[in-house]
Amino acid sequence: MDITLLAVVAIVVLLLVVGGFFLVRTQRSVPPSKEKTKPEVTGEAPAAPPQEDRERDEGTVRTPPAKAPPEEEPEVSVIPPEPAVETPPPSAGRMVRLRARLARSQSSLGQGLLNLLSSDTLDEDTWEEIEDLLITADIGVTSATQIVENLRTRVKVLGTRGSEEVRALLREELLAQIGADTDRLVRTEPHGDRPAVIMVVGVNGTGKTTTTGKLARVLVGDGRSVVLGAADTFRAAATEQLQTWGSRVGAPVVAKEEGADPASVAFDAVARATDDGTDTVIIDTAGRLHTKAGLMDELGKVKRVVEKKSQVDEVLLVLDATTGQNGLRQARVFGEVVNVTGIALTKLDGTAKGGIIVQVQRELGVPVKLVGLGEGPDDLAPFDAEVFVDTILTS
Fold first, then answer.
1. How far from 64 is each of 51, 61, 248, CA to CA, in Å?
2. If 359 and its partner were Cys, which of 15, 140, 179, 352 is the partner (CB 3.0–4.6 Å)?
3. CA–CA distance, 37 with 316 (Å, rounded to integer)
């Protein structure tokens, strides 16, 4: 019995010893835990782990920082200097100053008439030559016939044949036909709290927009304040041209986009001038074909719309003096639509025949008020009948 108990105890002890041995070996074979151990302190700094390992350990992947684009130098905008405001010369005496240009183009008419009238024999053939010369100068058949009849009578009654006497007779007849006493004043003075309104009409190519700009210079030279209305909205170049003219003399220009309603532009120009207390509004209208009824009706609409804001004081028709009879037909049609009050005759310094002045005035009963005598900005002058006649009769 005792022996059996001792054997059991021995077996148990043996099993415990063997089990402990294997347990110790198992623990020694297990890898060390992930507990961080303190680095060994040495004289050198520990090497940093590679960047990729650090990012992997942290669980994120970082992209390298983007390089900032090189800074661009700011663009330097060059602002062109504003054009200096000019001070044009006054209108008084302009035609006298420009008479040399007029003489170059019109002296042949006067000299031809004087030579014929001073000839030794004033027979029927000579009088017919005088009449033909007047007709070719665009004076018109009716006016030419009347001048010849009056001269024949006076030469016969007075017996006048000297050059100075003949010149005086011819001067009187030409002044009578042109109308020395005709009122040629362009109405530009404001009326109380509203400005004077001038509409400038005509076909393209006559110098209509240029005449509008030159007229602004005339008025500024006379001390008037001016607002320009760019109602020729069918031609972008017309607006730009008018803005250039206005900037030179400090005159504001009311304009809208290309294709806008011309009547609204004209209305706004008058409203602007009224609010600013401006003396005169000059409205440049679209070039109209006098053979197109629809376009002419639209021009009449512009005038009616403007009159809702202010009375139209002047309607100036711009005619090219070199067009002769065609210009006369234009004048008739425009006169029916907008009641033309005055003529601005351009290009009188070139190949124009000055007799058109007589014919236009006779046909329309409207005076020539302005004449263009060159391409310069101040070559538009109030028409002076006496200066005109004296110039063409001077050698």
1. 11, 10, 61
2. 140
3. 106
Looking up tokens 């009188």, which residue turns up?
348
Contact between 127 and 148 (Cβ < 8 Å): yes
Cβ proximity of 198 and 280 under 8 Å: yes
Ramachandran area for residue 202 (φ above 0: left; ψ -120 to 50: alpha; else beta): left
3-state secondary structure 77-97: CCCCCCCCCCCCCCCCCHHHH
One-letter amino acid at 266 equals A
Residues 6+ apart with CB under 8 A from 163: 114, 118
Q: Kindly write down the DSSP assignment for every residue of 244-265, as one continuous string.
A: HHHHHHT--EE---TT--HHHH
Q: d(Cα 170, Cα 340) in Å, to the nearest integer?
A: 30
DSSP H stretches of helix in the chain: 2-29, 51-58, 94-97, 99-117, 124-136, 141-158, 163-178, 208-221, 236-249, 262-276, 293-306, 325-338, 356-364, 385-392
Which helix (H) or strand (E) segment is 198 a member of? strand 196-201
DSSP state letter for 74: P
Looking up tokens 């006779």 gives 362
Q: Residue 155 is encoded by which pair of tokens?
A: 């030469």
Unique residue bearing structure tokens 């010849």:
148
Please tell me the least confidently modeled range out of 3-17, 74-88, 194-208, 329-343.
74-88
Residues 6 or more apart in contact with residue 272 via CB below 8 angstroms: 227, 252, 254, 278
d(CA 134, CA 288): 31
Averaged pLDDT for residues 26-40:
47
CA–CA distance, 180 with 391 (Å, rounded to integer): 14
Residues in the chain: 395
Helices 262-276, 293-306: crossing angle, 10 deg rounding: 20
Neighbours of 66 (CB within 10 A): 6
356-364 vs 325-338: helix crossing angle, rounded to 10: 30
* Over residues 85-95, mean pLDDT: 86
How many CB atoms lie under 10 A from the CB of residue 379?
Answer: 20
- Mean pLDDT is highest, among 140-144, 167-171, 220-224, for 220-224
CA 217, 218, 220, 225 torsion-angle sign: negative
